[in-house]
Specification:
105 residues; mainly alpha; 0% strand
């Protein structure tokens, strides 16, 4: 009979350990689901980063093309107009810069 009390303690401890294991297994399942979700989020973000890098590259190429066109235009108008004179035109003082608007697509 003296073993009866020890067996009850052992049974109680085993039951607590089994309950703890069930709880830990539940946590493990939740964490695995979180990992799957986070990996999906990561893939989506990686795709978004790739798409944004491609868009940035495209924009950079287009802006570089526009700048090249502007530089080409500036060179052609400078050659056509000849060197600019600093002499006053028709009795006026130094001319003011002309401000314009570029119209594009």
């Amino acid at each position: 009979m003296e073993y009866e009390e020890d067996l009850k303690k052992l049974e109680s401890n085993v039951e607590k350990m089994l309950n703890t294991l069930d709880s830990v297994q539940g946590d493990k399942i939740k964490l695995q689901a979180d990992i799957v979700r986070l990996e999906q989020d990561k893939r989506g973000l990686e795709e978004q980063v790739k798409r944004l890098k491609d868009e940035k590259k495209n924009i950079h190429q287009r802006v570089s093309g526009l700048l090249g066109s502007i530089e080409k235009w500036e060179k052609s108008t400078t050659l056509e107009a000849g060197p600019l004179s600093s002499a006053p035109v028709l009795g006026k003082g130094p001319s003011e810069p002309v401000q314009g608007v570029l119209v594009g697509n």
